[in-house]
Amino acid sequence: MNPSLSPYTSAVSLRSRRYRTLAGALLAVILMMSIYGGFVVMPKVRQAVDRPDTPALTRMATQPGPEVTAKQIAHAKYVLKARRVTVSLALAYWGVCSLFLVAVLFLAWLDFRESARSFVQQARTLRQDTVGSLRRNASSAEEDDDEED
């Protein structure tokens, strides 16, 4: 029996361990990103979106009245643009977090495939070793029967 292919060795291959290590690291990153996003990013987004002056600034930037100066219009557009950038950056942040999650799912699929391949290979080796052992036992039993006769 080949000891490197023994079914009694570790069922987890080196490649599978690598996938699991990467997936664990990505899960840790996702956890940290989720905590940071929940406690830092989202309050800033809520603060940018829930401002009571947003409708007035929007009206001032899009339909300025005669009493509004050009400087006020420029300031209103700047503030609205900064708020849009804040929301866009938050969406990009959560998009990256989602991509990491998809990467974890992909690594889990690769690990499953590798584990299944390893299981099939070990089962095949065990069957071959069992059949070979049975044949050896049968041939030695026949030789013993021939010697007794």
Please characterize this protein's 3D structure:
The protein has 149 residues and is mainly alpha-helical. 83% of the residues lie in helices and 0% in strands. The chain is built from three helices and no strands. The protein has helices at residues 14-49, 54-62, 70-148. α1 packs antiparallel against α3 (70-148) and α2 packs across α3. The longest helix is centred in the C-terminal third of the chain and has 79 residues, at 70-148. The radius of gyration is 33 Å and the shape is rod-shaped. The mean pLDDT is 89.
Write the layout of secondary structure elements.
Elements: H1 14-49, H2 54-62, H3 70-148
Helix pairs in contact: 1-3, 2-3
**Which class of secondary structure composition applies to the elements?**
mainly alpha
Helix content: over 70%
Distance between the termini: 32 Å
Query: Low-confidence segments, ≥5 residues, pLDDT <50?
Result: none
Give the C-alpha Rg. 33 Å
Tell the overall outline.
Answer: rod-shaped
> Tally the helices: what do you get?
3
Largest β sheet strand count, sense and barrel closure: none
Strand content: under 5%
Number of strands: 0
Helix/strand order: HHH
Average pLDDT for all residues: 89
